[in-house]
Amino acid sequence: MTDAAETRPNVPRGEFGFDRVPETDGSFENALAKARAGERLTVADGVELLTTGTRSSGIDRERKELVLEAADRRRAEVVGEEVTFVANLNNNVTTACNTGCLFCNFKDRSEQFRSANDADHGGFTKRPAESREIVREAVERGIYEVTSVSGLHPAFALDDEHRAILESSDRGDLNYRPPAEYDVDPGTYCEQIRAMSVDGVHVHSMTPEEAYHGRRGTDWSYEEVYGRLKEAGLDSVPGTAAEILVDEVRDVICPGKIGTDEWLEAMEAAANVGLDVTSTIMYGHVENEMHRVLHLKRIRELQERTGAITEFVPLSFVHQETPLYEEGMVEAGATTDEDELLIAVSRLFLDNIDHIQSSWVKYGDEQGLKMLSCGADDFMGTILSEEITKRAGGSFGELRSFDEYVEMIDAIGRVPVERSTDYRQRRRIDPDDAPHGPELGPKADGTPLVDPEWTDDAAGDPTSADD
User: Fold this and answer.
1) pLDDT by residue (tens digit) across 347-362?
2) Phi, psi of 413 (to 5 degrees)
3) Do the Cβ atoms of 357 and 312 come closer than 8 Å?
4) Are strands 145-148 and 426-428 parallel, antiparallel or unpaired?
């Protein structure tokens, strides 16, 4: 191995005094041999592959390519040559939040939303009726999944019973204020879920952090919370708010959020009441490679217990315009080499999760397609609004047409496949049979999903409902 063959990662090793560090007693060669043979990898194996050898301070490009090749072969063995995508809409209900995560610029301090505050804050909150209209229009155009991940608005309660408990409580630590104190009432979580559950659309919402917010001040279990949400129309749960499932990292980047054990408890509870879940990692900030692999181990163990995880979604940290960057705690996000290795090692380590997603929102089109040869097999969805990455400084667009998907996937020699949220419905698409549009939705008839008028109107301005 020569210095010229190495590239430096952006991992801030040694800067935060973490106990968990990327050192092992194993070797890269042994870990690679196990990966090629399809054996279950240990944490030490994962660290060796992710670092291309812990005895080196950089990433060895030749070794990296060997890891990518092994992951691509595993992908072909598990899911074949299909690349899937879904027709979906993002309907984030509110940006009001007091959690104070240092990696996020999606939130706006909720005090700014109070009627007593006349300052312009640039955020938004949608009433349930507004959410219903946004989703209804999207379903008419062929959408069949709505994803909703929102800030922790203090006026949000799970349902009317929960609101009554919060209203009568004399505790000062519940982050609750009555809706009357705000210009816009977000309703309750169950009201928002019922509002979005229209015309057979699949509602993908309520992260563990939101579920925690929806049970504050009560003795309710997460099973109780997710059971009520399921009755309201919730179909599956996004495994976001995971970030890095190692508490010494969470203590730095999101000390106001739930800890690792509670996140896992909530996800297991969602599975216990019959909801599918997804899983994520948000990497490329203060954590090191050991933290990343420990996160993968906890996801793999969660899948062993539940069997409910439909996909794993690596999310590369977009650093611009976030407090971590503005306060000088990080200088950049993950490098391209780190991104590729994270996808590859996820495929090799998570031997009980079939689908690994490549995010064109995080990586862009060219690199997003490259990830499909590093172990990924899913290419996200149409995402008719993507507010979170945009507000953090991301620049890779807000929506994607079926024609674009088919053209890109066909160009790399793979098979474009429209899928349902849970992957149980799949439709192979003939690239020559254009134009292309969704057909799996309750009102989808193959009509192209995106037209210029809509692109410039509702889809391009996710805050318009609050203007």
Assistant:
1) 999 999 999 999 888 8
2) 80, 20
3) yes
4) unpaired
